[in-house]
Write a structure and sequence with these properties.
Strand content: 25-35%
Number of domains: 1
Distance between the termini: 26 Å
Helix content: 25-40%
Structural class: alpha+beta
Number of helices: 5
Shape: globular
Largest sheet: 8 strands, mixed
CATH topology: Aminopeptidase
CATH architecture: 3-Layer(aba) Sandwich
Radius of gyration: 15 Å
């Protein structure tokens, strides 16, 4: 059982349940506007392994979605999506969601966590850097961490586009 976390702005971080699906859809649409990201975030929700949501006054205002990836001899994870409704940003919700995801992954023995973002997404890059993620601008740089076969598998799974920033945080040394 994952405990709920209360914050000074009175939002809670809880595990996703199907009753919150419509709230996640609305929150994703508000966070991403009419871009394809709102569509893909909802699609990812249906296939990811774990989702945590931020709830403020009984309204879903953000989410983090996690997927597992088997690479070589260990289990890794990806942050497939993390988003916060624009009206609720700068309240620590994104940090609380990412913190909860990392805590959950550590508790479950995940070796490392990965994410992708656009180089123009400064807010997301700043958030991940705050938690100790290392940035890679070129997939070839991953050879210091992964075998070539695993690099291809990881990038395919995360839907890498040339120019994306790859983010990496080791969880088990």
């Amino acid at each position: 059982m994952v405990k709920q976390i209360e914050h000074k702005y009175l939002f809670r971080i809880i595990e996703y349940d199907l009753i919150y699906r419509e709230g996640i859809i609305r929150s994703a649409q508000r966070a991403f506007g009419n871009s394809m990201d709102s569509y893909w975030a909802v699609r990812y929700l249906d296939k990811c392994n774990k989702t945590f949501i931020a709830v403020f006054d009984n309204k879903v205002v953000g989410a983090v979605m996690i997927g597992y990836i088997k690479l070589h001899d260990s289990l890794h994870a990806e942050i497939g999506y993390i988003f916060v409704d624009p009206d609720y940003r700068h309240m620590g919700i994104g940090s609380a969601l990412l913190s909860k995801a990392i805590e959950f992954l550590k508790e479950n023995g995940i070796k490392a966590v990965w994410a992708l973002t656009s180089p123009r997404n400064i807010a997301t890059r700043f958030l991940f850097k705050k938690f100790g993620f290392k940035e890679f601008a070129n997939p070839r740089e991953l050879k210091e961490i992964l075998r070539s076969k695993d690099i291809g598998k990881l990038l395919y799974r995360m839907v890498y586009w040339r120019g994306d920033v790859i983010l990496y945080l080791p969880l088990i040394k």
